[in-house]
Amino acid sequence: MGKSIMRKVFDGLFYVAIGKYTGFILSLVIAGILSRILNPSDFGVMSLATICITFFTLFCDLGIGTAIIQNKTLDENNYRELFTFSFIIGIAISCCVILFSYLYGSFYESEKLTTLCHIMALSLFFNALNTIPNGLLYKEKMFRFLAIRNVTIQLAGGGLAILCAYRGLGVYALTIQPIFTAIASFITCYVHQPIRPSLHFTKETFSKIFSYSGFQFLFNIINFFSRNIDNLLVGKYLGVKPLGFYDKSYRLVMLPLENTSNLLSSVVHPVFADFQDRKDEQIHYYEKIVFLLAFIGFPMSAFFYFTSYDLILFIFGDQWIESVPLFRILSLSIGFQMILSSSGSIFQATNETRLLFISGLISTICNVIAMIVGIFIFKSLIILAWALVISFTINFIQCYVLLYIYNFKRKIYYFIRQLRMPLELGITLSVMLFAISKIVYSKVHFINLTVYTIATIIVVLIYVAVRKPFDLTKIKQLISKHS
């Protein structure tokens, strides 16, 4: 049965990874082009609008998407009732955004911000409608279809945004992609997974869902504030332009993390939920996932730290140079955050959304303290970045203490030993890149990035060949299934 678990995980990861990391590259290309057409202030005000829309998006889902995946007793009538409920919620939330945006724009003294929120309210309606069809596709593990859908929509939406920016639409061009994505995602999901609305509701349907999704929704709320309060405060007290620099560096750090998190939650939760009564197997294979994430995350952290200057200027252009020190500092947290991105899925798959909520609450408190120190006490983005790195490290520790000691009932030692070899590789790579940074330099950013990339690949390959952290024979057998 263990092989069945890992085969399902690998099958899902194979297709979802292709979609996510193709999307990752597309995101960098699209962001790089838009960053050269628009200015930092445009991205700053759009960041504020995105925070508003993201917050209200939480109420469109209410944790129902993950509950659909986890609950095995829901039937077609339940899905029909939930679909009608999502339609009502979508209309209500969109109207709330339109009304709230007047107050929101007034707080930041920006009519442009109000207009952006009005435009993007349309995406909320379709995101709400998409909750049930999208959840069913993940429950049925339609990973190949979802990967193709996501890449196609991202490419089309990004192309439209670039065209509109080039034609002089300004900051409003940044609204094209999220709106297009919401509409196109719903249409493709609904065509593939049509659901007829129901004209009545039953208590049974909502008791099945909200007994699980309640803590998930609360976690989503506090996690939202934990991840976005910094942008709100920076935009208000330090200015929209500094927010543009801060948001650009933070988003670039989060881009690989979000893709990894979405990849894992898309696959691990649906697959592990099928084995929710066999926790020993879940633990065993989850630790393999932790090892793999650490093996990717710690070297990535070292690579981003030493390439920060060339990476920022090569992708976004010279006008974004003030983002470089922020990106360099925040990149130190990538290893821990890469691993942490998988914790939500395993809390969900083991029916412990209560512990997930507690961990999220502690994380929010730590992050808020970090923001107070950086924004209000020192009034410095650099101090804010350092404070957040410390906060992320503390949150990493408390999350896995909760997961192992209180959920798995397992000694934390078993988790720590998964990090030993990845940390060893990360330190080795850091020493090598530091040495290269002292002897190799070109004014051409692409050349510097090429040198660092080649050196990183060589170090990783030598380490894998010497230390043999993976069973390459089994990996080849799994890959051959898809060749």
Report the average pLDDT across residues.
86
Number of helices: 19
Note the run of SSEs as H and E.
HHHHHHHHHHHHHHHHHHH
Kindly state the percentage of residues in helix: over 70%
What is the CA-CA span between the terminal residues?
A: 24 Å
- Structural class estimated from helices and strands: mainly alpha
Beta-strand percent range: under 5%
Radius of gyration: 22 Å
State the major sheet: none
Coarse morphology: globular
| Domain module count | 2
**How many DSSP-defined strands?**
0
Uncertain stretches: 478-483
Task: Describe the secondary-structure layout.
Layout: H1 2-37, H2 40-61, H3 64-70, H4 76-107, H5 111-139, H6 143-166, H7 176-192, H8 203-237, H9 240-273, H10 279-316, H11 324-330, H12 334-340, H13 343-349, H14 353-377, H15 381-408, H16 413-416, H17 420-439, H18 445-467, H19 472-480
Helix pairs in contact: 1-6, 1-9, 1-10, 2-4, 2-5, 2-8, 2-9, 3-5, 3-8, 4-5, 4-8, 5-7, 6-7, 8-9, 8-14, 9-11, 9-13, 10-11, 10-12, 10-17, 10-18, 11-15, 12-15, 14-15, 17-18
Task: Characterize the structure shown.
The chain is 84% helix and 0% strand. The chain is built from 19 helices and no strands. It is mainly alpha-helical. Mean pLDDT is 86; it is low at 478-483.
